[in-house]
Amino acid sequence: MNKRHRFVISLSSLVLVALLFFIVFSERGLADLSWLRKERNALLEQNAGVAAENEAISIEIDRLKNDPDYIEQIARRELGMIGREEMIVKSRSGDRRDP
Question: For the whole model, what pTM was predicted?
């Protein structure tokens, strides 16, 4: 082999190594590929959680619009309301007498 042939092979090898380095470590290279996949998977999980939350909210909205028993349950639990025919009986805890 002559010097020119060796030079061309050396230059080609150098270019290939530079391209390989660029492919692996550049901004959009293989090194960032795994990071981007992890980020994508995290976003997919977050989207699934938000979709499930939206579905639950949608079901609750539908029940609040159309289910009187559910509305009554919420009114009793959150607002402390009672029905028309009901009364609240409170006992005095200090006045208890045992027979």
Answer: 0.54
